[in-house]
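Many introductory courses stop at the sequence. We go one step further.
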Amino acid sequence: MSKLRIVYMLSLMVLAVLIAFTVFRPMATGGQYSEVARENLLEREDEWIIQFDIINREGKPTEYVINVSVAGKQFSDRFIIADGSLYTYVYHIRRDMLGSGEATVTVYKEGESTPFEQTTYYLK
């Protein structure tokens, strides 16, 4: 057999092994993390409504802190979500409290100083 044919056969075998690993055993297995889902910004005549879900996939009940900053004022909420559960957060921003038109929502997990979700809304 020629060298080219041997290299070709070896490369086919390596390719077959890689395909088998991707089908039967994923190479990257990681844990699931908390996430924010279904973010909504609703506008009414006299207010905006920010709504989103937090899903806890940490493997234990976890405390969350949500900070909302509107016109330089900070509003904070704390709550505990059971493992595998979902919490729907709703916040109302009246037009008279808007100021510069910027509203920032930051979500933290217990004991962490870095948020896992941060969104800024520019409202008019």
